[in-house]
Design brief:
single chain, 345 residues, Rossmann fold, seven-stranded mixed sheet, 28% strand
């Protein structure tokens, strides 16, 4: 099969607005020992793409510093964490049987080789990603999903959004019969949380607004709460016995509605990074605040099992060609959509 010598890609050479996304003709990367070369079938967009491009992650002790996910980025950088495609070449020491297989790439760069390793870097940030026709990845991080009934577009939506959601659900120890509250339910992670929590047998309450409410209900939420109305009042009506797990922001007003031993799992800062709450509601009720950055290798393996069996149905909000990456990111930033935005090289 093989690959050509050059490819189309979209890179950033500095932090800034959508205008720093530059189409380029670059050399196709060569898979090193232990790596594979993947022809990109689809790449999904994430808030991480916007924050990385803007340098919005801050640094310890300096929250306003321009920074990538885990520190300074090496420019120029090809963005894009979420890739589905086919293996077209393998590096030294890699089983040639992977060639031709349909795969999803785990974009995390881990702090170790164990099953519970933590992500300390991300494809598209700490190494080149999938805003391109081809991308390399460690062979240990590509998962064969040839048998999955999902399309490449759907598979590409899984790594960051569904990986983050599954990490939240696992770290929050959500079990069958419990009640989970999903805030920001119309986004990629929100829809993923709803679908995975439903598959787990939990009761799902979701917060959304306006025209998105119907789509969030269609995604599987048992009850959709209107952000424009009194949230605590709606929660008390929908779950008088309280909430077991909160997935997302809203801590101040929702913390008193957690059950004894309830868990609040945070995986982002879209609602702002400066949060105030009454710490007495935390310790008097044995509640927990849990930070959750993406997923572990174990979590990602569980996610790929769901994908092979087709037990989740990702929602595609829009599709763009690769050369419209700036427009695709602007669409993502407007937050008018439900589900995931994908690009097809």
């Amino acid at each position: 099969m093989g690959a050509p010598e050059t490819m189309r890609a979209v890179r950033i050479a500095e932090h800034g607005g959508p205008e720093v996304l530059e189409p380029a003709e670059v050399a196709v990367p060569v898979p090193q020992a232990g790596e594979v070369l993947v022809e990109v079938g689809a790449v999904a967009l994430n808030n991480t793409d916007l924050w990385t491009r803007e340098g919005a992650y801050g640094r310890p002790g300096d929250p306003k510093a321009l920074s990538g996910w885990r520190g300074p980025i090496g420019f120029p950088r090809i963005q894009g964490a979420d890739v589905a495609g086919r293996v077209v070449a393998v590096g030294a020491g890699v089983d040639g049987g992977l060639t031709g297989r349909r795969v999803v790439v785990d974009p995390a760069i881990y702090d170790g080789d164990g099953p519970d390793a933590n992500p300390v870097g991300l494809m598209g940030s700490e190494r080149d990603g999938g805003y391109a026709e081809y991308v390399t990845a460690p062979a240990t991080r590509v998962h064969d999903v040839t048998e999955s009934p999902l399309t490449d577009d759907q598979l590409a939506t899984l790594p960051t959004a569904y990986g983050t959601a599954l990490g939240m659900i696992e770290r929050g120890r959500l079990t069958r019969g419990e009640t989970v509250l999903v805030s920001g339910a119309s986004g990629g992670v929100g829809i993923a949380l709803i679908q995975i929590a439903r598959a787990r047998g939990a009761k799902v309450l979701a917060i959304s607004s306006g025209p998105k409410i119907g789509a969030v209900r269609d995604a599987g939420a048992h009850e959709v709460l209107d952000r424009a109305r009194d949230i605590p009042e709606q929660i008390r009506a929908a779950a008088p016995e309280g909430i077991d797990v909160v997935a997302g922001d809203l801590v101040g007003e929702v913390l008193p509605l957690l059950r004894e031993g309830g868990r609040w799992v945070v995986a982002g800062a879209l609602g702002g990074y400066d949060v105030t709450f009454d710490v007495r509601r935390l310790y008097l009720h044995n509640a927990q605040v849990i930070g959750s950055a993406m997923h572990t290798p174990t979590h990602f393996g569980l996610l790929m099992d769901l994908a092979r069996r087709g037990e989740i149905q990702p929602v595609i909000a829009a599709r763009f060609p690769l050369d419209q990456a700036a427009e695709a990111q602007e669409e993502l930033a407007r937050r008018g959509h439900v589900g995931k935005i994908v690009m097809r090289p």
